[in-house]
Specification:
3 copies of one chain form a homotrimer. By secondary structure, chain A is of the alpha/beta class. Chain A has 2 domains: about 160 residues, Rossmann fold (3-Layer(aba) Sandwich); about 150 residues, Aspartate/ornithine carbamoyltransferase (Rossmann fold), CATH 3.40.50. Chain A has a 5-stranded parallel sheet, with helices on both faces. A 5-stranded parallel sheet of chain A has the order 10-9-8-11-12. The interface between A and B is medium-sized, with 35 and 29 residues.
């Protein structure tokens, strides 16, 4: 294994294997497994969990890590091919990434959507460039349309909670003051489908996920014996739900157009998860969210502070599954 | 030991024990004592000594650490309970702190005074929230009203310099262009009182420390056989002094009111420590300061560059005593 | 060895010894050589390679490191002697540097030219102050007029490429939107001269390097049996060249005067390295650059992406030679 870019690159059995390795490393720590190994971490975007959990994960396996944050302590990096670099960026990723890769044994890169051209982001244009520039094992720490570490952690969380394979899993749009990327909803949708769940995407009109994203999830569901549907009728979606996965995202119809998106989301702030959402859900239905979450905007205190919320467990599982990924890539 | 929040949480004997452990770790290094252990460091405010000494201390004991700096590489964290999070902060400490705690074996947090409501800061409202959110050992790396790592380092410095237990210790207000928090003066005052010293607080009119702070120090002095008095007469305070501890702080009378504080401190810039301050002090009287110090504003070059100044030794002792704290919490 | 400040502080034999140690550590890794050792890294200026390669190098030798970045997570540090510190800087390097040095076993410092007074920068006024404040081994991670880590890495790169000792080495000025410091051109010129090469400095009128810099290189060339000349005739310079080392720098005639420098460089953007530059060079002539490089401004894509460019190898050699420096200072 040389890349951890997308759960779709692996078979279901390979994912189950990775999850088993995660459990094994938890039960039987291997504090010297990555002794002498170095992980380079490049953050084109801010981070809390990802930074801390990767550094902690390497340390728990006996390795070490360094962090590069373009724009903070390191100059900005140019990403456009053939650019005439007379602006703010002092270095091109065509130099920066191979150089950093040459200093370490594996590289993790976070680079959110460019949010200008939907097709470019769907094609993971930037991350494919990174991929081509890195001759070391590479980890996607969130790209334009993916967040495989989060997806794997969430899969483990569902397993830990004994959520049945075919249970009803509602991925619901929730309110946020501005448009956010599609990486987590796309990755979550695909993960739940690949796990074999009855997945329903609930979102207001205008916030349907791109057809490509839906099709990829449907293909995964078909293989795993699950299903993927979508609706703007939140109440119906929640009927019999075992899991509500809340996530904020921008309208694909107005991709990169902040004003048009803002007009579309104005008035949708009742899409803030409250206890009332769970009226017709299963009694012990869970609330999942990848974090960070805006309290009382995306999810109300009453839910985050109540027994349904498993968001801290999801976050802890980031560490647990990433250690398995690091072990697989480097041990 | 699961918390290092305030010297007042410990008996005099426990503090002496910690200081003995610090000396022992200096004399007999234990380079693998914390092998495999991870310290998480969260800085809501800037740092030089604290960051470097905690990372170095963990490394010297064989452990490792990660650093999170909300607002720099990590988004801002909301701290208000029940906030409707539609502003700049993307995540609440109610998620952030437990998640980071779950990645490490001990957490250090720096969070200066909110500087809005004096009673809230005296009550350590924010740090108590952090305390309640962290199920791992927790270290106060400076809070609204405390800085126990600095206080412990200063205690050790006094011992190293063979300053007698009951010697005269003057904590003096010194000039700074703007109001600074009360954490270090409060912690220093309490430390010197707990050590049993004859403590005099010298400060201009309007800069008396809060009654609660004085009362806490007086209680400690009573137990240790020392005393605590205060005066605005600097010359009298310095008579027979063995130690001058210089510190900048804001007026508790105008807490959170920068303009009123500025009017009060205008004209007080002769409160910059010079050699003339020591005319009636003991011949070898020392100058202490927690750093950072503004040269020729709070303390003149002639003192900082002369034999009285022991500020670098205090700073080195941060490392020495924090290693004892880490050892006690984690070994 | 207690300082790594300037290749000129060492004899040719000592440099060859260091390079041999670098090769030896590559062939026979010593993953525990610096176990328990701590490197402090202080960046007054931004970094990518230097930060990552020093942290990785320490880790590969079993040691660890911490990073302090004044202005980012740490307050600004005052550098002027006798300053009345009532401005933005909260701490003086006279406290900051000795304190940080006391926490670690060796200190690396990056501090670019002040770019106000040429003679002060030529005298390395600031770095000499740092030198005087640091009682631990000290590494120059780029100063006003030097970059010995880069120079040593480039020497190794020339050796690896079997570039003959006396081959023609052209250091050419290339375009950049604004004036950059003289550290790398000065260090590169001296390195190539010390290696014994036939060095030609090609630069437009007004961009001649300071006489002191040229004289120092000529002295090194004399000892090593090489030569140093300069010209504004790029085509002649390139005749028979085996290596083109491209570098951007500001006009010493208008040092610290951004506007006058800008007028001088206006119209010089044909000083962007393209394949046409190599018409009369040796067939396999190489393109070197310390990075970061602005593509299509300083060097064209066609060269950076072609077989001449060895910039990534130079960057990797930063790690390789710095491990030798760290080993020599700390093992």
């Amino acid at each position: 294994m040389n890349r951890f870019m997308d759960l779709a690159d692996f078979s279901r059995e390979e994912i189950l294997d990775l999850l088993a390795l995660a459990q094994s490393l938890k039960d039987h720590p291997q504090p010297r497994a990555l002794a002498g190994k170095i992980l380079g971490l490049v953050f084109f975007n801010s981070s809390l969990r990802t930074l801390a959990s990767f550094q902690a994960g390497m340390a728990r396996l006996g390795g070490s890590s360094f962090v590069i944050t373009p724009g903070q302590g390191t100059w900005q990096l140019e990403t456009r091919l053939n650019a005439i670099m007379d602006g703010a960026a002092a270095e091109h990723v065509r130099e920066g990434i191979p150089v950093l890769a040459s200093y370490c044994d594996a590289l993790g890169v976070r680079a959110f959507a460019d949010f200008k051209n939907l097709q470019n982001d769907l094609d993971e244009k930037f991350f494919k460039m990174i991929d081509g520039l890195c001759d070391k094992p590479l980890i996607n720490m969130e790209s334009a349309m993916n967040h495989p570490c989060q997806a794997l952690a969430d899969w483990r969380t569902l397993d830990e909670l004994h959520v049945p394979q075919h249970a009803k899993f509602v991925l619901s749009w929730v309110y946020h003051p501005k448009a956010l990327p599609l990486a987590v909803p796309a990755a979550t949708l695909h993960m739940a489908a690949m796990r074999g769940m009855e997945v329903v995407v609930a979102r207001p009109e205008g916030f349907a996920l791109p057809a490509e994203v839906m099709a990829k999830a449907r293909a995964a569901a078909a293989t795993a014996g699950g299903s993927v549907t979508e609706t703007s009728d939140r109440a119906t979606a929640m009927k019999g739900a075992e899991v509500l996965y809340a996530k904020e995202w921008g309208s694909p119809l107005h991709y990169g157009d902040a004003e048009a998106d803002a007009r579309l989301r104005a008035g949708l702030n009742d899409w803030c998860v409250g206890e009332r959402w769970f009226t017709d859900a299963l009694p012990d239905a869970r609330l999942m969210h990848c974090l960070p979450v805006r309290r009382n905007v995306a999810v109300a205190d009453e839910v985050l502070d109540g027994p349904r919320a498993v968001v801290r467990r999801e976050a802890l599982n980031r560490l647990v599954v990433q250690m398995a990924v690091l072990h697989r890539l480097l041990a």
